[in-house]
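User: Second chain of the day. Same drill as before.
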Amino acid sequence: MIPVCFQLVRAIRNLILACLALLASAAGGAAQQPAPEPQEHAVRRFFGDIWTDQKAIWSSPFRMNTHQFTRIALPLAAGTAALIASDRDAAQLFPNTPDQVRYSSYVSHAGDAYALAGAVMVPMLIGKLAEKPGATSIGRSGAEALADSAIVTYVLKPAFWRERPTAGGGKGRFWHGKDNSFPSGHSLMSFAVATAVARNRRTPKWLAVTAYTAATAIGLSRWSARKHFPSDVFAGAALGGLIGNYVATRPR
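Assistant: Same format as last time:
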């Protein structure tokens, strides 16, 4: 079962990366005229950036300094642990009616990988068609963050195998069954894209506010749709924010 799961994870990851790479290549030459960058160079550069990001992301726990550990890692770990302890009670805070679950699910679909890919495609196309390098830069930041966060999501979920709120009597047990509740992938990917877009120096304030608002709505909707516990959403948002911030601020 485990090899099959990892094959599925790898297939999903490769599909997402391939789609995003094609989007990046479509906009790769918008900022350079009259000699646009060849598509194969844009694709290679995109995958190269993802590879660089992944090495930094997975090695970051071993490179933290005292300030990062005490001001970032420790509070996030403590907050997640506290929420895990209260998850069972928090899952019952909503009336959990069929209408609530249904409409929350509608909202949460905005955080699907394909929906987020479509969202980052918009500024890329604007940048290419209207010859606006700033729009291309915003879209590419979002695409890179989405690819990075998708990989992290599909690696972490099988590592924790946490039950969803509707499984196992709502106990939210880790390493039990075949659910993948922790962390929330929708929350992780949404906040990664939102942060990468918002922290891009060419992003207007209204777009940054919109991106964060959308990511917050998506995260909360996963809770109210009974797809995740609050700790799943919080952990996803925190990890996504860190990934998005890295993408937006790392030297190029």
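Residues 2-249 form one domain.

User: Great, on to the next one.
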